[in-house]
Design brief:
CATH architecture of the largest domain: 3-Layer(aba) Sandwich
Strand order of the largest sheet: 1-8-7-5-2-3-4
Number of strands: 9
Number of domains: 2
Helix content: 40-55%
CATH class of the largest domain: Alpha Beta
Oligomer: single chain
Radius of gyration: 21 Å
Structural class: alpha/beta
Length: about 280
């Protein structure tokens, strides 16, 4: 253990095991409060600090009952429903935390995991921890938004690989093309085709389903016209968890474990009902 690692451990031990105030710990270690904050965050990232919040049984009882109802109604193998907030950014963090917890529960050495882009999938990234060896991360779609870097699939894939300590397979190209010939031209690129070939050997894919709201990059960039949006809605496209049999006015994501071919959906719980 080098001096930097020792400092990180000592900061964590004094603050969390001995319950000494951060002000006193900073003085003891001879660092500024800002430096101590960074040391504690690094300790969390390395898994030295693990925070567990044990909710009362009643807190999740209703969500468990609702998840079982959704599972039976839609014929889905597993459904995880999380609490929702009036603030969509908080709801997305709930989704990200729940998805990360599920990913951690199934991750094994040598696993290959794919990520799409989007705001909800991006919220998984802060919760990922370095865990096992030989993890491979595959980008599942091209770029969409020209302005929001953090929701791009390539950024998400690189971040996931970095946080998991794995390697990354990136697609260099957009998600939507003006015509078939443009797409065919890109697919002739061996670098791109080699990544797409990885799709068939994925163990897990994490895909954000998205919403048909005004903050959707597809709408912001003009990829979908008003008529196309209405058409998708008539088809029962799962926008924010809404389809022909259920309604949920916020975001959700789907994960697929290809080993057992089982789909798992992570929904928020706000205004959710079964019809």
């Amino acid at each position: 253990m080098d001096s930097k690692e020792l400092m990180i451990f000592e900061a964590a031990r004094l603050c969390y095991e001995l319950d000494i105030s951060q002000q006193e710990v900073a003085k003891t270690l001879g660092v500024s409060p800002a430096t101590l904050t960074r040391l504690l965050q690094k300790a969390k990232d390395l898994g030295i600090i693990k925070i567990t919040v044990q909710p009362p049984y009643e807190y999740f009882k209703g969500l468990d009952e609702l998840s079982q109802e959704v599972r039976k109604t839609l014929g889905i193998t597993e459904v995880i429903i999380v609490p929702a907030s009036s603030q969509i950014n908080v709801t997305r963090k709930e989704l990200g935390f729940a998805a990360c917890r599920w990913i951690s529960s199934i991750l094994t050495k040598g696993m290959k995991i794919g990520f799409s882009g989007g705001r909800s999938v991006a919220e998984i990234m802060p919760f990922l921890k370095r865990s096992l060896e030989d993890i491979q991360v595959v980008q599942l779609m091209g770029g969409v938004s020209p302005t929001e870097k953090t929701i791009q699939a390539d950024v998400i894939a690189r971040t996931a690989a970095d946080r998991l300590g794995g390697i990354c397979h990136v697609i260099h190209g957009p998600a939507i093309f003006p015509d078939e010939s443009s797409l065919a031209h890109l697919l002739k690129n061996k670098i791109v085709s080699d990544v797409i070939e990885q799709f068939d050997s994925l163990d897990v894919s994490i895909v954000g389903i998205g919403t048909l709201t005004t903050d959707n990059p597809l709408l912001q960039c003009g990829f979908l016209s008003d008529e196309e949006v209405k058409h998708l809605d008539r088809l029962g496209w799962c926008s924010g968890g809404r389809d022909r049999q259920s309604s949920c006015n916020n975001c959700c994501m789907q994960s697929t474990n290809t080993e057992d071919n089982h789909n798992r959906y992570i929904y928020c719980a706000r205004d959710c009902k079964i019809e």
